[in-house]
Amino acid sequence: MGRFFITTPIYYVNDAPHVGHAYTTVNADAIARWHRLCGEEVFFLTGTDEHGAKVAESAAEHDMAPLAWADRTSARFKAAWSGLDIAYDDFIRTTEPRHHRAVQSFLQRVYDNGYIEKGLYQGLYCVRCEDYYTEEQLIGGNCPVHGTPVSFMEEENYFFRLDAFADRLLEWYEEHPEAVRPATKRNEALGFIKGGLQRISITRTSMHWGVPVPWDDAHVFYVWYDALINYATAIGYGSDEERFARWWPSVHHLLGKEILRFHCVWWPAMCMAAGIEPPANLFVHGWLLFGGEKLSKTMLQRLARSAEELAITDVAPDVLTDDFGVDAIRYHLLRAPLGSDSEFSYDGIVARYNADLANNLGNLVARVATVVGSKCGGIGPAPDPRSPLAAIADEVRVEAAAAWARFAPHDALGATWRLIGGANSLLESSEPWKMEPGPEVDAVLGSALEALRIVALLASPAMPATCAEIWRRIGMAGTPEDRRVPDDARWGGYPGGLAVSKGDPLFPRRRD
Ligand code: MSP
Description:
Elements: E1 3-7, E2 11-12, H1 19-37, E3 41-49, H2 53-61, H3 66-83, E4 90-93, H4 97-112, E5 116-126, E6 131-133, E7 151-160, H5 166-175, E8 180-181, H6 183-194, E9 200-201, E10 203-204, E11 220-221, H7 223-228, H8 230-233, H9 241-247, E12 251-256, H10 260-274, E13 281-285, E14 288-290, E15 293-294, H11 297-304, H12 317-324, H13 326-334, E16 342-343, H14 346-375, E17 379-380, H15 388-405, H16 409-430, H17 439-458, H18 464-473, E18 498-499
Parallel strand pairs: 1-3, 1-12, 2-3, 3-4, 8-13, 12-13, 14-16
Antiparallel strand pairs: 5-6, 5-7, 7-9, 10-11, 14-15, 17-18
Bound molecules: 5'-O-[(L-methionyl)-sulphamoyl]adenosine.
5'-O-[(L-methionyl)-sulphamoyl]adenosine binds near residues 11, 230 and 255.
């Protein structure tokens, strides 16, 4: 049985979960569900990043101890994911003892291998990035990511000899041309490496909210250094070597483009320094944008203050799912091409909801059930092996599988929706509601039911609850998740003779 290990970044607990975080998590969840449907053993990891100055500051602002604050915000992430039907296999918190142990054993190894040394660090620091910048990197004297002021910091700390890995990283990139995708992001990472690597400061004495350095208790590790290791902790690094070896290095890291350097340069070098293989797959996605800006908590708060921009306050995931339904929001997030930036707007959700979900999928489900009720006594007929839909279904099955496999849920769904469109066209051209009951009507309706069965299978990673409901309405036992692709998605699987039930519209049309 194949194995599939996928991760999201672990989210900072200084922010409440918003739709930008949901974008990554829903994509990872849908891709993980696809691999389960393929019959693979899947391990889907997400979690929260709970150390560092930023978290300590947020806690202090709320008059709380850092751990109590982290408990509260981490729970909010878990609640958000449960509200979006996210089926993760593990939720890691970096404050857990298992993580502290793994970080200490990982970095002790790097230290013992001679890649960590002591030195004096001076630089311009952005607390929100938890990262240092050079003068040249600043924009108008401010942090290039947040646009907020940076501060001068000086401290004695330990350095990781990133500079010692430039050649090995370039070699690794050469030998693994597909490791970082898309290619534009691979080139960006190569640009960082070729631009020259410097040793990086990886410990702090100025604050204490972090994992203690095992060989020097005056220091804690810099938050990024502990955070990246979560991917190793969760599969047993340092505690269960057999388990670790089963899952590593064939991981798939999904991450936003602003954390490319940490994942595609630092992390592979850290792995090399610890004597393990770098992660095999890194997929870098774009941002959801609102008016061309990254959709961040700060921006939401700012926009929330102006009445005419009220719609954007709806971008907390639960507000959106209460409004449109969980699967409609999952679908919307999954239709944004994963490798590039996408505009996100309330009107955009409404437009896609009406076009794809209400008019296409919802309409097909309702029409088929109604006509099966009036022309076939509510019993679904078997599909026609010669239906024009059979050829479309064959094509769509192959295309959707290839798209899911290359981390392109938007293309997988685009293909799947062609089968829905084909079934709607078949109904419109043959108008079974005007025909006398008989073999001709049966052939059309059986084929439309078969198209729905295949759609419910192929779209189930995106819309698990809706697809299970379609499955039930066309009379199939169990849920699509009990089946396997590609075999069960071949034309002819709908047996016929099943009771087809009507129900409330799956996606009532929106007027706003
Ligand atoms: N804690 C670090 C990651 C450590 S991983 C070892 C971090 N956390 S974060 O809370 O800021 O989350 C960043 C991630 O959230 C991005 O990489 C991306 O996956 C997601 N997104 C946050 N805002 C986003 C958008 N506006 N659009 C798309 N994804 C966004 O960085």
